[in-house]
Design a protein that fits this description.
mainly alpha; 2 helices
Amino acid sequence: MTDGQLILLTFLSGLALIVLLVALAIGLFRVQTSLDRINVNASKILWGVRAIEHETGPLRAGLPELRATLTDVVGGAGIIAERLTAADQHLGAAAEALAGPRPVGQSQAQA
């Protein structure tokens, strides 16, 4: 190998190294740009979560009382349902009594 060829190969190797470093720098720049955008979006999300936490903070104090109240409401609704069932049965019996006797062969569905 001559000195000219050796210099040319050294120059081409150096050029290849520079191209590799430039490509690597461009790739890293793109990754950094994407990470910066992700950071901006994550910051907005974090701000929103903190705002929600701040706005809903006072609810913590009232939750035990609300739970007790709703438990009482459920109990009361059960009692109301039982009474409505009983009233429905009484109204059904009253309707049968007011309807009078049915002709033979006529079912309740046909009336």
